[in-house]
Amino acid sequence: MTIRPILIHPDPRLKKTCAPVARITPEIETLAADMLATMYQAPGIGLAAPQVGVLSRLFVMDCSKDPDAGSRPMVLVNPEIVSVSEATNIYDEGCLSLPDQYAEVARPAEVRMRWTGLDGRVHERDFDGLWATCAQHELDHLNGKLFIDHLGPMKRQMITRKMVKMKREMDRDRA
């Protein structure tokens, strides 16, 4: 497994709609394994393929918080939302592509998703709580949307300016 570099906003690849995965191949399996390793190392609870520069409809997540229960990694290929609850939850969301930036985002409290697993079969499951928020956040990435796109223009611009400054400082440190 390879830890892959995570793209930092603003990056044009983070704003593109991703193409469906035609079939599960060894390359897709390797990508999924690399993404899980990258997500855990970051550390994060979700990571979408465009965040590592791959414009394919795939994301990984693991929202298990109980250290005794162990990890519960999930790989969702070509995910789609089947239904959402009317009730909403507000979470203070963050993103590995926007380090150290957080904002409250309202999303449906429960979602039913359908996706293809690495086993090639179609899966369907209900998610709630943090799992529901994470699944929707990662699905947004596959549609070229970031959590800051759910915010007002002033807050979004402020966070984007911070990211531009951070990237400039990172480039200067590497030079």
CATH architecture call: Alpha-Beta Complex
Number of domains: 1
Proportion of beta-strand residues: 25-35%
* Order of strands in the sheet with most strands: 1-2-3-6-7
Class, according to the CATH hierarchy? Alpha Beta
Mean pLDDT across the residues is: 95
Rg calculated over all Cα atoms: 16 Å
* Low-pLDDT windows of residues: none
Element string (H = helix, E = strand): HEEEEEEEHH
Provide structural commentary.
- It is a single chain.
- The protein has 3 helices and 7 strands; from the N terminus they run αβββββββαα.
- It is of the alpha+beta class and 175 residues long.
- The chain has one domain (12-174): Alpha-Beta Complex (Peptide Deformylase).
- The longest helix is centred in the C-terminal third of the chain and has 22 residues, at 153-174.
- It starts with 25 loop residues before the first helix and ends with a helix.
Topology, element by element:
Blueprint: H1 26-41, E1 46-48, E2 58-61, E3 74-84, E4 88-95, E5 98-108, E6 110-116, E7 122-128, H2 129-142, H3 153-174
Antiparallel strand pairs: 1-2, 2-3, 3-6, 4-5, 6-7
Outline:
By secondary structure, this protein is an alpha+beta fold. It has helices spanning 26-41, 129-142, 153-174; strands at 46-48, 58-61, 74-84, 88-95, 98-108, 110-116, 122-128. It has a single domain (12-174), classed as Peptide deformylase (Peptide Deformylase, Alpha-Beta Complex).
